[in-house]
């Protein structure tokens, strides 16, 4: 699969940029179709998938832990400053729970995940492409798409929802720390209050989209890496482009899913 | 006894943009022979090799592997055919994230149902053939250029292909290592009874390995025959090519 590539240092015309954009959309669509085609054909690369899940999870865990606790803490504090003058601090756990569950945990985890994982996949597969390792696999009769792309995309799709559940938990703890410091709120009251505001729809709306985010991170990283051209400069471009494209797609998918969820 | 034509290339044409890299190239490769492909840089030698395994798709022409056209065969058949054709890349193309043992085991694990002990035995025997048994647990980054070529060669022959394509097997190596690699290619070919197509600029390599030579010039097949016969031709391009090569060797 060949796509027009940016040439380092060359200023592209508007027409060339538009052409590249549509070529990329077409390329990613073909990549998605190929993924489903090879996903169902045995042999299944279960060990590779497990290996990548562990790798992606471990790579992202430190940064999402830090982000989760800070976001929970800051959001609780901001809510306190707004609600305290109104005497409505009892609403802090509920509003915090809903906003973390429905929006903040899924999207911020996905964006950080894209930064770590999509760039990692893009760089790894890009290096393999320019050093002919993917060609070597192909000419030996092994399908590189099935061995390199399918396990990475599957791993990315499965691990992001798990990370999001973890971030929700960490953010809620962060939120409790802030309310305890400001209000000395009882922990049982905090959790009971939060649970009373949350319903199944909040959980579903928050969690379903994380599978789509994880899938797109895997697909975009793999696509950018797999179609790398132009040596080490090309690898750099693919890596950057993988992060930018997957982050934009995450925001775009989120917008669509929120709109669909409101219907 | 006449040997079979294992590969037939007919009217192969390939362009990149305006530049015609291969222009109506046709030749045969006989089973068991060592064919050298000579030509200046950019004359389509590597494009020719990559077309044989369909890494690149030519614009026109046909490539037959035992009467089946590689360029039109279905994906499943192509994978089966590729298993019979080994390819040694210029850089060796070793998998960076795997040790030498895993590099050699990888195609066996994926393409055969051999048990782990048999795979290990095969790896050890193949590394003995390329004289690098001690490198078994090293990572590719720890290997020298010559060692990478040898391990690349070991990975190519471990699946017992019938044809091996070599893309500049001695480029970037010192003259002594180049001779060692060339002799190794010849001895493996004799032992394993493979057919070889070797793209190279290296005259010494060609002298050691070749049964027959073809020259590409500006994308066209310029001349073919025995190396000794071609060297004696009263042809300006040929004389110029060999004098430059000899000068390079002397340097």
Explain what the structure shows:
- The complex is a heterodimer of chains A (263) and B (251).
- Chain A has one domain.
- Helix content of chain A is 84%, strand content 0%.
- Chain A has helices spanning 14-39, 46-83, 92-130, 133-139, 144-183, 187-197, 200-226, 231-262.
- The two termini of chain A are 38 Å apart.
- Chain B is an alpha/beta fold.
- Chain B has helices at 45-52, 75-82, 100-111, 116-129, 145-157, 175-192, 203-209, 227-231, 236-250; strands spanning 5-16, 19-30, 34-39, 60-65, 68-69, 85-88, 163-167, 195-199, 212-217, 220-225.
- Chain B has a six-stranded mixed beta sheet with strand order 6-7-8-3-9-10, with helices on both faces. A four-stranded antiparallel beta sheet of chain B has the order 2-1-4-5, covered by helices on one side.
- The N and C termini of chain B lie far apart (43 Å).
- Chains A and B meet through helix 4 of A and helix 2, strand 6 and helix 3 of B.
Quick take:
Chain A has 263 residues and is an all-alpha fold.
Gyration radius of chain A, in Å = 21 Å
- Domain count of chain A: 1
Please tell me the overall pLDDT of chain B: 90
Strand content of chain B is 25-35%
Could you describe the largest sheet of chain B, including whether it forms a barrel?
Answer: 6 strands, mixed
CATH architecture of chain B: 3-Layer(aba) Sandwich
CATH topology of chain B: Rossmann fold
> Termini distance of chain A?
38 Å
Enumerate the spans of chain B where pLDDT stays under 50 for 5 or more consecutive residues. Answer: none
**Helix-strand topology string of chain A:** HHHHHHHH
CATH superfamily descriptor of chain B: P-loop containing nucleotide triphosphate hydrolases
Structural class of chain A: mainly alpha
How much beta of chain A, percentage-wise?
A: under 5%
Number of domains of chain B: 1
Helix fraction of chain A, binned, reads over 70%
What letter string, H or E per element, gives the SSE order of chain B? Answer: EEEHEEHEHHHEHEHEEHH
- Total beta strands of chain A: 0
Label the structural class of chain B. Answer: alpha/beta
How much helix is in the residues of chain B?
A: 25-40%
Q: Low-confidence spans of chain A: pLDDT under 50, at least 5 residues? A: 1-5
Shape label of chain B: globular
């Amino acid at each position: 699969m060949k796509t027009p590539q940016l040439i380092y240092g060359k200023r592209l015309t508007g027409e060339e940029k538009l052409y590249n954009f549509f070529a990329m959309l077409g390329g990613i669509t073909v990549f998605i179709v190929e993924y489903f085609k090879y996903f169902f054909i045995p042999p299944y690369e279960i060990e590779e998938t497990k290996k990548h899940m562990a790798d992606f999870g471990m790579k992202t865990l430190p940064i999402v832990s830090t982000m989760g606790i800070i976001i929970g803490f800051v959001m609780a504090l901001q809510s306190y400053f707004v609600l305290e003058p109104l005497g409505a601090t009892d609403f802090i756990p509920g509003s915090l729970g809903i906003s973390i569950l429905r929006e903040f945990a899924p999207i911020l985890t996905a964006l950080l995940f894209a930064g770590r994982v999509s760039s990692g996949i893009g760089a790894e597969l890009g290096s393999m492409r320019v050093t002919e390792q993917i060609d070597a696999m192909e000419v030996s009769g092994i399908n590189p798409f099935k061995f390199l792309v399918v396990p990475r995309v599957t791993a990315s799709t499965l691990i992001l929802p798990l990370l999001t559940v973890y971030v929700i938990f960490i953010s809620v703890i962060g939120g409790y720390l802030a309310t305890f410091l400001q209000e000395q709120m009882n922990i049982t009251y905090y959790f009971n209050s939060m649970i009373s505001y949350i319903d199944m729809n909040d959980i579903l709306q928050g969690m379903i989209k994380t599978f789509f985010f994880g899938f797109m991170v895997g697909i975009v990283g793999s696509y950018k890496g797999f179609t790398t051209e132009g040596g080490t400069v090309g690898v750099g471009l693919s890596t950057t482009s993988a992060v930018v494209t997957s982050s934009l797609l995450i925001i775009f998918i989120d917008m669509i899913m929120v709109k669909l969820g409101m219907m | 006894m006449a040997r079979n034509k294992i590969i037939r290339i007919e009217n192969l044409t390939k362009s990149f943009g305006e530049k015609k890299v291969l222009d109506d190239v046709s030749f045969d490769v006989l089973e068991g022979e060592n064919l050298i492909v000579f030509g200046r840089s950019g004359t389509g030698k590597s494009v020719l090799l990559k077309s044989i395994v369909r890494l690149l798709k030519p614009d026109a022409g046909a490539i037959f592997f035992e009467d089946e056209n590689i360029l039109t065969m279905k994906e499943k058949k192509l994978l089966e055919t590729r298993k019979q054709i080994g390819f040694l890349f210029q850089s060796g193309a070793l998998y960076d994230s795997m040790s030498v043992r895993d590099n050699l085991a990888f195609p066996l694990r994926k393409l055969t149902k051999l048990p782990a002990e048999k795979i290990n035995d095969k790896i050890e025997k193949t590394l003995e053939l390329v004289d690098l048994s001690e490198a078994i647990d090293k990572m590719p980054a720890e290997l020298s250029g010559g060692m990478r070529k040898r391990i690349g060669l070991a990975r190519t022959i471990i699946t017992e292909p019938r044809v091996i394509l070599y893309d500049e097997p001695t480029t970037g190596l010192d003259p002594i290592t180049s001779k060692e690699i060339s002799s190794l290619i010849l001895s493996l070919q004799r032992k394993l009874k493979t057919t070889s197509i070797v793209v190279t600029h290296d005259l010494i390599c060609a002298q050691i390995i070749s049964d027959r030579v073809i020259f590409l010039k500006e994308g066209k097949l310029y001349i073919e025959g025995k190396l000794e016969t071609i060297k004696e031709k009263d042809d300006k391009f040929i004389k110029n090519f060999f004098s430059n090569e000899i000068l390079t060797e002397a340097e």
